[in-house]
Design a protein that fits this description.
Length: 180
């Protein structure tokens, strides 16, 4: 069964739901421009550090620290860009487990939930941030996210996912899963 922004299919292992990330072209253009600027600054700083030409004492230590933080920002930046370009969430439901995977270019994170502890799958209201409609901004699900209109109870926690869906799409997906 296919929805506008998701697919639900029966496999030999169970039911698999695939939710691709929304392609936010404004965000992709903005993040791409930031990535170019980030790259130039990263290269200039690394070259200055490696050249060892900085005359001030303690400047090298500052540059190493600054470069480490700047590089961490680059990881977040490129992960967000990858998410917007090719990201997707894959949820596999079997009798024994619910497996959630958020990935882009085959890299990502996987969480496994015991099926017996998963309760009350539902769609909850979820409003997008004002700047971009991608509900995972600024951190995409590949970096943690934990946002979206789809939710289920897992023990005492509420697990949320599906940031690319709006509430009505999430409700249709819940009904499709109930029928599957």
């Amino acid at each position: 069964m296919e929805g506008r922004l998701y697919t639900v299919e029966r496999t030999p292992r169970g039911v698999r739901v695939t939710i691709p990330a929304q392609r936010e072209w404004l965000a992709i253009a903005w993040i791409g421009a930031c990535a170019v600027i980030w790259g130039v600054i990263e290269i200039v700083t690394a070259r200055q550090l490696l050249a060892g030409r900085d005359p001030e004492e303690g400047a090298a230590a500052f540059l190493v620290m600054w470069l480490a933080l700047w590089s961490t920002g680059g990881i977040i930046l490129f992960s967000t860009l990858a998410w917007h370009l090719v990201g997707r969430e894959v949820i596999t439901i079997t009798d024994r487990s619910w497996t959630y995977r958020a990935e882009a270019f085959g890299l990502g994170r996987t969480k496994v939930y015991h099926a017996i502890a998963v309760k009350n799958l539902r769609a909850l209201p979820y409003d997008p941030p004002p700047l971009f409609t991608q509900r995972s901004w600024p951190l995409p699900p590949v970096l943690g996210g934990g946002q979206g209109p789809l939710a289920f109870d897992y023990g005492s926690r509420i697990v949320r996912f599906g940031p690319s869906l709006d509430t009505s799409q999430a409700m249709r997906l819940v009904r499709a899963l109930e029928d599957a």
